[in-house]
Each structure stands twice: as structure tokens, then as C-alpha cells.
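Complex record, four chains
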Amino acid sequence: MTTPSGKNIDTVLEKSSQYRNWGKWGADDELGSINYVTEEMVVAASHLVRRGKVFSLALPLDSNGPMNGSYGRINPVHVMLQDGGDIASGAQDHLATLRYTDDAAYLVLQSSTQWDALAHIYHDGKMYNGYGTEQVHSGGALKNSITNIKDRAVGRGVLLDIARFKGKSALATSEPIEAEDLAACAEKQGVTVGEGDFVLVRTGQLEERRQSGSWGDFAGGPAPGLAISASDFFCPRHVAAVATDTWGTEVLPNETEDVFQPLHIIMLVNAGIYLGEMWDMEALAADCAQDGVYEFLLVAPPLTVTGSVGSPVNPQAIK
Amino acid sequence: MTTPSGKNIDTVLEKSSQYRNWGKWGADDELGSINYVTEEMVVAASHLVRRGKVFSLALPLDSNGPMNGSYGRINPVHVMLQDGGDIASGAQDHLATLRYTDDAAYLVLQSSTQWDALAHIYHDGKMYNGYGTEQVHSGGALKNSITNIKDRAVGRGVLLDIARFKGKSALATSEPIEAEDLAACAEKQGVTVGEGDFVLVRTGQLEERRQSGSWGDFAGGPAPGLAISASDFFCPRHVAAVATDTWGTEVLPNETEDVFQPLHIIMLVNAGIYLGEMWDMEALAADCAQDGVYEFLLVAPPLTVTGSVGSPVNPQAIK
Amino acid sequence: MTTPSGKNIDTVLEKSSQYRNWGKWGADDELGSINYVTEEMVVAASHLVRRGKVFSLALPLDSNGPMNGSYGRINPVHVMLQDGGDIASGAQDHLATLRYTDDAAYLVLQSSTQWDALAHIYHDGKMYNGYGTEQVHSGGALKNSITNIKDRAVGRGVLLDIARFKGKSALATSEPIEAEDLAACAEKQGVTVGEGDFVLVRTGQLEERRQSGSWGDFAGGPAPGLAISASDFFCPRHVAAVATDTWGTEVLPNETEDVFQPLHIIMLVNAGIYLGEMWDMEALAADCAQDGVYEFLLVAPPLTVTGSVGSPVNPQAIK
Amino acid sequence: MTTPSGKNIDTVLEKSSQYRNWGKWGADDELGSINYVTEEMVVAASHLVRRGKVFSLALPLDSNGPMNGSYGRINPVHVMLQDGGDIASGAQDHLATLRYTDDAAYLVLQSSTQWDALAHIYHDGKMYNGYGTEQVHSGGALKNSITNIKDRAVGRGVLLDIARFKGKSALATSEPIEAEDLAACAEKQGVTVGEGDFVLVRTGQLEERRQSGSWGDFAGGPAPGLAISASDFFCPRHVAAVATDTWGTEVLPNETEDVFQPLHIIMLVNAGIYLGEMWDMEALAADCAQDGVYEFLLVAPPLTVTGSVGSPVNPQAIK
């Protein structure tokens, strides 16, 4: 099967083979490209902080989120276990003087601003580093859980504001971002992308939907995003992670009719590069445009849900 | 009512009055002592990073956590929405080539390593800055939600390793930590505690229970912790937050029979100081003891659950 | 405020006063009109069974249900704790020979075919029998929980098939069912409605939406249903319960602009009559039309969730 | 492997072969032994009702239930979505006059009084009627879900009160119930057990634990229960279902060291007999002892959770 793009499973297999890092850090590695991040890089990234401005890149976790319920992916459910009404009505009068509130949430772990774990995607029965399907059962992931990076999601962040670079508030629906777009944007912004970097790619789609007042088909519908060629930009540069402000990182519909989300297979399954999705980069991007500085300290720790294959995250970009 | 300690509700009222910050940052403030943290402090804290070592201070979120189910506080429930078995059995064969796993969790927001929001505690019908009980209903907190600090939980962290200071692996059950202990520990460690700091106080209790193989009555039972006098150390110094490695910050049983958790009333409700609980400081403390450096960059972003009165957190201490 | 119908809060207050049963069965009664059902009635109802045909009146509990998520009312969430994939992949090989599957569900208790508890509705700070708001706190209902009828939802069921009576597949949107409609339908069907009966009123709306392939605004939107005058039919007859095939029992928009769901106040809060909603009566109604028998044994036991204010139910109509 | 009982996997295979009903009602049957229940039996069972007394056999669904959390089996979690505090504090003042409460629950479907679906147990990769492991994936059961009996759990109930028969308040821990015990108990009670019956077997263990104030190891620990020979009583008689007042139907430890829960394999997987567990038979049993009538109408409809492999149930025994 060959699509109008001329790309198909063969393209994916070729790139996968080209960029595969299985075994590179040992047969039992579960960290993937985060291995590129050295302690020296963490020091250097920390010293990028000059103004002390902190940007939270997380969407609110609530019932107005972008999920539509398909495949069990519902928006966050927040419930109160104790609230002010209980205090006012005397329901806590068994306590001595102090009163309290308490709450809980049911969170689909990839329902909003998130990290994909290396255990999130399989191709041909294997996930990153060759682990099989028996490694993720109903008890959770035995290998490649996102908890592996509980203390490793720290490093140099770089924003590539593709929308601004193209002079748009947001890319068009299904507009692809090619390797050359990424390179040209970096050059124009005066920033380099290198080993161990956490690269944030802004399409403007998230903000566009937010402004419209409705998420519409944000989750899974046609969207701007990374083309397969983006792997030629990211993989040779040895980046640690790539995040976008879209639902699924990649341009949708995908270039390959016979492969859904081909870049996930190339970059996450084979190269072991972490993918972040639905990161809200608006305030950060505006600030970068203003001061011309597109690099920062990024701290984006996942939750430590044992065996989890993804995680909500409140990424902190510190300039 | 006067307890053997000579302390009771009057003590709490007096300290509350002494350290109350209501209105200090405006009648509509919801940030409390995090207001002390300036952008300059964030820059300075970032520049404390010298070795690039990152410590995650979060416990695993799973069914083996410290909760016992009382008052609805159950341990995290992790469920798989899609797993390797589905891939192997063909349940995803409607997808083109790619396969995936997915998961969700029910999290009591204060069931493990956590932040208390300023909306978490009430005294006499009021929470921090005087907001009433009608401000937290079944829909969540309208004021003082933990989401207010989604981009503010960044600054200078200081560890006060009280257990090591006292030459113990862990404080004794119900051993209080007084203001003078905190001051003496800081002095011996050669570190100062000042405005805008996030202070981590280690009792060793968490590790003791972990080593024992059972949490026992960790959640709510007798415990070492901060005495009321600790407020005389923290409040005048204008700290932003205080975290411990115990369930409830304070020494238990409390010094006051007529007030449960009196320091929560003084420090959280009145001074607006954020409290962190069940922070796992073991690896960090061992490192600090080794290199003699007890200050670091702390980045501890809460989840952004709208209206939440607490949050799980994976605090990052970066040295 | 007077609406085009000429009905308003005064109408509701008048009917409420007229049909109020508070205190009738004691100051501490929590059963309401279910008190009318005697053991003799249960015997008689059981002996109505002549053909041994059983009809389940429950909708499927799944993500395709009629909820739209407003006010936290999401459709059922079903998760597998163990499944066939675990068995196939060896994840249960620690068990001797036997293998198993297991599951769980998050159920909003009134998200589908359900019972309203007498604790579900308040008017002027009171629920049935005068209990106050402090009787339902975050720990659940202390009074009037649906669990009170865990062994009392058994008796004579009577179907009033209003849609067929009016010669329609379904009533029109916002078409009211008045007392005289109920009486005329019963007469035409040759069935009486009397003390202790569980009366099922069919509008055809549920089936209409199911046939259309979309629930649309079934939950809370304009709908056919009982008018205020229906209370003049049900209350004097001392029925035990009334159920419909609509989301909310009553005609929507309501006749009263200043009172939402006025019949809930008159019949549930004041008369103590249980209301069932979203009961799927299609197969039952077709059968009744065929054999001309509109009475049957009804067994509709709620779940026993302690303190619950409503319950999913799988009502059994046995002819 | 041969145990002291002389029973092992060979015993299980032999009985499984002897009582296997696969294909008996067609290659695509999903009902199993419930097929034995005819409409005539439903009529006859209904006419057993003579006094109009209804017994609910369900335990309360709450945090005090018998689960201990192993394998994700936690006790029910009940949360309020709206409560009296919201009404009192004005949080519902956007509504016209009416006020309401609302709630939800997270229910492990087999955490309390329950039905096992025929999809609940596998042996050698097959469940009842030969369906494979691919028929229960993370989306639920495609075959043999408990929803298949949504309108079929109605028929003649028979109580075999083994504890009373043996002159005990409760059987001893690990006391087996053999085929001859069942036959002798029925004879002494003057009741027959026959085709299509729902047989309730009382050990007294549930009440014993309730009286003790602690469930202890009720869930999974040593327990009285049915021995393998019980299959020789139930299977030839063509019963529809068997329920006990214990966690797991069978005597524990099992007679077979190499097979966990062997009777589940023989009776549920092979004969297709439904198993009910944790049914609270105390009040019913006392009543039967008093009036000497051990047969009744049983109505025990499962919830209709699509694809569920078990269900909480509030069984109604009507005499």
C-alpha cells in the first residue's frame, strides 16, 4: 500500500531500523533517550535560569478537558470526600477544633497534558528495547513504566515555535511539520537543538481550540503535527524528549495509511524518545517571542503510579 | 482544658493571632506564604545546582501505600484500559500496525507524598485569608485550591535532617521537634533558613516503617513531628512551605487535647504556609550528609485538578 | 411569577400540603409510600404470574448510556482487573490450574435505569418526613437512603402505556401527561391502579432515542412526561412508586418556571412516593399490548450501597 | 501430585468430563445451566409465595465490607456528588426551588454479595462452552458476561441450611460439605432439589464473622465450603445455580493442592452452573427454621454492566 505521500510501512521500517537504540544502553535498559541527559547537562540547564519566571505547561484537569470518552478516555473526575458543607453542618464535630476538606480524582493518565511511557506503544509485539506484550498485563507495566523517569525529567528545554515561525497563530489542520521546518525555525530563533534536550514544538492548535470554546475533534481528529521526516531532525541530534501542544504529536491523518501514528513507532518504540502531548505552551511562547530566549530549565516529573504507561504532568519551564 | 504540656486552644489562638497573614497580600489573596518567593529567589535557587543530581521525593503510588482506608482515604487504585494481553490476543487488530497500552488511576489526592492546599484546613469556619465554608462545596474549592501554585512551587529547598542531627536513624514515636531543635540543626548543618524557603524536615519515621515492611499506624498513629513551638521558628523566618517525611507534619498525639493538629491551624490557616507530607527524603538526606550541602533547587509542581484541596506531588530536589 | 400554564410555586405548595405524608407512619419513618405495600399484596402480586415470562427493564450500563457528563453525571466506566490476555500471557501462572477474570465499575448511581431515594430531593431545606440537610453529608445519607427498600421493592406492577393509548410510537417532545390521561389509559387498558402499586408510565421517548442512534438531549432536555396534575391521580390512590422511561419523570420544560421538577417536590418529598427513571419498558409494553394483561409481579431491588441517595436497578417484571 | 484427600487434577478432569455441558444448548450458548429454568418453573416458583415476606440477601456495600484489597479487590467506595451541605451553603441556588443530592460508587463487581459470570473462570484456556481467552479483553467479556442472565435469574430457591442441619451455629473452619451432607440436609428439611433450582447453601461462616466484629481472613482464608463431591449432588440434579454465604463457595484449603478452587472448574466452567458468593442467608434461614418451609421464589437480577464478568446482586427470597 502506497499513499499519496509515497510513504508506507516500508518507510516506517526503514527509519525504525535506522534510528533504533535497542541495546545501546544495555539489554535491560528502560530509560531510552533520557540516557542522553547527563548531570552536567542538568547543571547547565539550571544555569539557564536568568529571570526566575516559571511557566506551568499543564492544562486544567477537569470535566472540560479535551477527551471525548472514546476507548475509555474520559476527562478527569474530581470528587470531594469532605467539604465545607460538612464543616458547616456539623458532620466533623467529632474532631477537636480543626476541620478539613479532602478529595480524590479518577484520572485517565493520558487524558490531558501528559507523558507517554516507553511502555505505551508497541510495534510487531515489541516495545522499546524489545520487551514483549507479556510485560504489560492488567497489573501494569513490568518494563518501561513512566516511573523510570521519576527523577530524570529534568534538563534543557528548547521551544520551537513553528506557528510563529510560519507567521500564523496556528498551523492549518493537517499541516505537517517536516525536518526542514524544525531546522529553519531553530535557526531563525537563534537556538540550537542538541543531545539530551527536551524539545517543545508549538503548533498553536491547542490555543486555537481553547479560543473557540470547544475542543471539537482535538482528541484524535485531523491536526497539524510532526511528519515522519521529523525523525531525521530529532533522532540524529539525540534529543531526550519531544512534546507538542497537540493530542497526538503527529500530523493527522498520518502520512501512512497502513500505519497509525508512524512517528511513535520510529521515535518512541525504536529510538526510545519520550513524547509529551497536550502541553500548553502559550504563555511560554509569548514570553520567548518577547525576550528572544528559547531555551530554559525544564522540570517535568511524572506521577509515580507503579506500573503506569503514561502520566499526567505539570511541566515547569523556568527561564 | 489544659494538657500536661500546658498547651491548649488558648496557645493556638495566641500563636494564630501572632502569625496571621490574612490580608497581608490583599483581601483576595490565595497564595499565602508562597508570595514570599520572588523571581530573584528562583534564579538564586537554580544556581544552587552544582552537581546535576536529581532526587525524586515521591513514594510509589500503589496499593502498598501508607493509607488504611479510614475516612475514604484508600491507597491508589491503578487500572489498565489497554494492555499487552489485548495486543497479543488481537483485540487491537482494528488499528493499523501500531498497538498501545493505556491506564487510569483513582487517587485520593492526599494518600501519599502530597501538598496540602490552603483550602485543606479550616478553623472556626474559616480557611486562610478568611474564606468561609461555602467556598469549598461538592464541586471543589472556589478559593485556595492547590492549583494556585501550579507555577509557584519552585524555589530554594533546605533540608533539616533532625534525625541525623540527633544521632538517630529515626526520632522516637511521639518525639517532638521544637523550635530550638530546628535552629540547632540548621546551625550544625551550616545552613540558614530564610524568607521564601521550602524547608524539608526529616524525622526518619518513613524509612523506619519502610524498613519494617509494614506501614502500621503511620497514617494517623503516634508519630514524631513538629511541636507547636516550631511555628516560632518558621513563621518569623517567612518560609514558603514546610514538608516532613511523616503522615501529618505534627507530633502525635498533639500537645493540645482540645485541638487536633494545632500547627495546621497556626501555620496553614493563619500564616498561609503550605505543608507537604509523606515526602521521602532518604536518598536526599544521605547525599546531603555526604557532601555537607543542605540547600538545593526544589521544584514540586502540584497536579492541576481544578478545585482540588491537595495534590500528589513528585518533588524534585536538584543539587 | 405565573407561567402560561397558570402554575407556579403556589400550586406546588398547595399540592404538597394536600398530599404530604410526613408523620403518617411515624416521626422516624424512612419508607414513605412503600409502607402501603402489605405482605398480602406481595402474595397477590406473585400470583399474577401466569406465563413465567420475565422482562428486564434495565438499560445497559456502559459508555454509550444517556449521560452527557453535566454535574459529574458521566456514563458508567467499566474496567477489567484481570482478563483473558492476562491468562494467555502467563500473568496468572502463580495460580494452580484455575484462571480467572475480574472487573470493576465506576457508577454514577443515577446515570441509567434507577431509583431515586427519598433522600434525593429537598425542598426548603427538608426531605421526606422533614429531615434536614445535615442528614446527607459527604459520608452519605443518614436518613432516607435507598437501602431502606432493599427488601421492599416488591409488589404489583401496572403498566400505563400512554404512548400506545394515544396511538403514537412516542409522545411529542414536551407533551404533558395529565391525571385524566392516566385515568383514561388505565380504563382503556382494563386495569386499575390502587394502593401499594408500582406504576410504570411509558412515553416511548426512550425507544425513540434508541432508534435514532443518539441520546441527544435525553438527559435534561425537553421531554414528554408527567404534569403536576398527575399527582391528583397517584397520590389519592396511594401508589408505592412511579417509574417512567424518561430521564426525569416530569414534562420538560416544567409547567412552573419558578420550580424545577415540581412533581418531585409534591410526590417524592411530600407524599414519599419513590420515582424510577429511565426504565426500559419496550419489550414489556409490546407483550402487554399483545396479551392485554397490564399487571405483573414487579421486583426491583436497589443495590445496598450504604448511605446512597439513588441506585441503579435491573427491574424485573414477571408475567 | 496427590494430596491427603487423594484428590488432584485427575479428579477434576474426570468430574469435568462427566458433567460437561458444552454444546448441550448449542455451540453459541452463553446461558449454561440457567437454560434448565423454564417459564413453567417461574410460574410455579411465583406460586410458592404464601406469606409475602421478602428477604434481601445482600451485604451492605461499603468500606466495612469483607475485601482486604488483594489483587485490586477493594471494598466499595461511595462518594457524594451533591449533598445536604451544598444545599445549605447555597451551592445549588442556581436551581429554581428544588434541591438535590447525588452520588456515585466505585464497585469491584465481586467485592460483596455477587454472581460469578460464566466468563469469570477459565481452565486450560477455555471458559464455559469452550470460548477462548481472546473473548475477555480489556474492553470486557464478549462471551458469557453476567448480563446474559439479566432476565433469567428468577426461579425456585431452595435453602440447604447445613449449619443448622449439623446442629451448629457455623461449620468449623475448613469443614467440607460433601454430597451426602447435602442430600441428608435436604431430606431432613423435607425439601427436594431439582432441575432449574437456585440452591442456597448456608455454612454460618458469614454470620460468625459478622458477630466477631471483624471479617478477618474471610476473603480467601481457610473456610468451610463445598467439597468436590458436591458436584455429584448438584450436577445430576440439573440445578441452575448454587450460592453460599462464604467468600468462595468451596472448602478452603481446597482438597486439591494442584488445583485452586476445583469445583469452580467442574461446576462453572464445565457444567455451566452459576455460583453466588457472600449471600447473607441469616434472616431467611431463621425464618425457614421457624416455618419449616425451605423453598421460595428467588429473584436475583445482576446489574447490566456491559461485558461484566460478575455482578453485585441484591437477591430477593420471597416466601
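Note: The first helix of chain A runs from residue 9 to 19.
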